[in-house]
Design a protein that fits this description.
Elements: H1 4-13, E1 18-20, H2 30-43, H3 48-56, H4 64-71, H5 78-86, H6 93-108, H7 114-124, H8 127-134, H9 137-156, H10 165-177, E2 196-198, E3 209-214, E4 228-232, E5 242-246, H11 257-279, E6 282-291, H12 301-309, E7 314-318, E8 328-333, H13 363-378, H14 387-394, H15 398-413, E9 428-436, E10 442-450, E11 455-461, H16 471-475, H17 479-490, E12 498-504, E13 509-512, E14 518-520
Parallel strand pairs: 1-2, 3-6, 11-12
Antiparallel strand pairs: 4-5, 6-8, 7-8, 9-10, 10-11, 12-13, 13-14
Helix pairs in contact: 2-3, 2-10, 5-6, 7-9, 13-15
Length: 521
């Protein structure tokens, strides 16, 4: 799991749904963080930040507007403010529901065991159902597994019978500070749905998938450091014949070399057994990749498979990219023969799949992608104006960020676009708004703005620089996409016309009418 965070970050940036098995990562998940905040509030009702996090979490579903109403209340704890705001006529239903539930759970926090209290919270707060509704479909299995694992954790502390809630919270804080191998793992997910599953090979035993990608298969064997124990204990013997503790080959006496040779042979056998498990998880295709080094690593799994299939099996190579360690070589094989009795890699057949072509972003494309992200962050509602934080997120130097900031500010403040970014001119606005089509596909709108008499969908093409004389040609590839957006939002805003427009990086504005596009700069 050493590179797990790297894989997860890449998948998140590519918006590929995934489920991973992070060692000791249960308490770092968002859903468990929400539960810890809720339980902390139940023993310390003056913990305003914990209450705010709990209210914003899916079990209560309070909006930013609800929290702003509490923040604007007179002095006092947020628990007192919740009493005042939720008790008024016309109060938010979410705040009223939160007040009723929290009052009941506070009364039980000192009397029920932690597990029983959580059971009430899960049932009365409809936690499983509300988290299902709040997270993408691909993540539901992982979230539900983590909720179940958190409940099991309450049973593991003093067998679930006697621990007080403060003691349980203290135990959780200790576990969060513990090493990964000592902290509780995330819940096991049986079916990840339409998502990439990142698993260790041991964790993948018994599972299959149409496509399996074996990562980091070109790594060199680890060098043994420190003392190592070798136990010579044949299965038919009632006791060990020999036991060795040594720190290196220099300390190995010649007379005991056969024992060490036998141990090394067993390790090689076990290594092949593990490779066999990895390869036979694939039902249709197996992809094997690894970072190439200056020296060829024949003992690596990548080297073994390459030798078994022949050099023709290596179907593509990705040249080194500045900032990335070395190059990656790929092997793709056909269906694995899971009926094999002995671990063997020669049963796989190479399938020609073409060459991998690496494309590099042009400076203009890179600028456009960053500009799109910056627009999302600085546009209302809830604009982020901390330039230091924004520059760090964009990984831009001072000159690059100044250019990005100037372009983004020009778009937001342009006279013909100002009405879409000025809260005084519209009723409500959303940015990066996700929705799901009737076919179950996820979509995302760059910006949706509701006015008194109409609704607008804006789609930013920040990487493109259109001209007034070729607006229609630049917009042509996106007409089908915008038509789909319009149809989806027309079902939501049935009483208002829905209008669509493209906004290019240089500020040109192209409205796409239902039948014929009308352009205006």
């Amino acid at each position: 799991r050493a590179n797990l965070e790297t894989y997860e970050r890449a998948l998140r940036l590519a918006r590929v749904p995934y489920v991973s098995s992070r060692q000791g990562g249960l308490l770092d998940t968002l859903e468990c963080g929400d539960l810890i905040a809720l339980l902390t509030f139940l023993i310390t009702p003056f913990a305003d930040l914990c209450l705010a996090q709990a209210l914003r979490s899916p079990p209560f579903g309070c909006t930013d507007g609800d929290l702003m109403a509490l923040a604007q209340e007179a002095d006092g704890s947020w628990w007192g403010r919740l009493h005042a705001v939720a008790g008024r006529e016309g109060a938010s239903p979410a705040l009223a529901r939160a007040l009723a539930l929290l009052q009941g759970w506070l009364a039980l926090a000192d009397t029920l065991p932690v597990h029983d209290l959580l059971d009430r919270i899960y049932f009365e707060g409809e936690l499983p159902e509300r988290y299902d509704a709040a997270v993408p479909e691909a993540m539901r299995g992982a979230v539900q597994a983590n909720l179940h694992a958190f409940m099991e954790l309450a049973l593991n502390v003093d067998s679930g019978r006697y621990p007080s809630l403060p003691k349980f919270i203290n135990e959780l804080h200790e576990l969060r500070r513990a090493r990964a191998e000592e902290a509780p793992d995330e819940g096991l997910v049986g079916d990840a749905g339409n998502a990439v599953r990142i698993l260790t090979i041991h964790g993948a035993k018994g599972l299959e998938a149409p496509i399996v990608w074996l990562l980091d298969a070109h790594a060199a064997p680890r060098n043994e450091r420190g003392y190592r124990a070798v136990l010579d204990w044949p299965p038919e013997s009632s006791r060990p014949r020999n036991f060795f503790l040594y720190a290196g080959k220099r300390e190995c006496a010649r007379q005991w070399q056969p024992v060490f040779d036998a141990e090394a042979q067993l390790e090689r056998r076990e290594d092949l057994n593990l490779l066999y498990v990895a390869m036979t998880r694939a039902r249709q295709a197996l992809i094997v990749s690894g970072c190439a080094s200056a020296r060829k690593v024949e003992a690596s799994w990548h080297g073994k498979i390459t030798n078994a299939l022949g050099e023709a099996a290596v179907i593509g190579a990705m040249p080194s990219v500045p900032g990335e360690p070395g190059r990656c070589e790929f092997i793709r094989t056909g269906r694995m023969n899971s009926a094999l009795q002995e671990p063997a890699i020669s049963s796989a057949a190479a399938i020609p799949t073409g060459n991998r072509i690496t494309t590099r972003q042009t400076p203009a494309q890179r600028h456009g992608i960053r500009l799109h992200a910056l627009l999302e962050w600085i546009a209302p509602p809830q604009p982020m104006i901390d330039r230091t934080w924004l520059q760090a997120r964009l990984e831009a130097d001072d000159a690059e960020f100044d250019a990005l900031w100037q372009d983004a500010s020009s778009l937001v403040q342009a006279p013909h676009l100002r009405r879409f970014f000025d809260p005084d001119r519209y009723l409500t606005a959303w940015k990066e708004l996700p929705y799901r089509t009737a076919a179950g596909e996820n979509r995302r709108l760059d910006r949706l703005v509701e006015f008194e008499d109409e609704v607008w969908i804006l789609d930013f093409k920040a990487a493109e620089r259109a001209r007034e004389d070729n607006l229609a040609a630049c917009a042509a590839p996106y007409l089908g996409q915008m038509k789909e957006y319009r149809a989806a939002m027309a079902g939501v805003f049935a009483l208002k016309p829905v209008r669509c427009a493209l906004v290019f990086g240089n500020g040109l504005f192209y409205e796409i009418a239902p039948d014929v596009g009308q352009a205006s700069a």
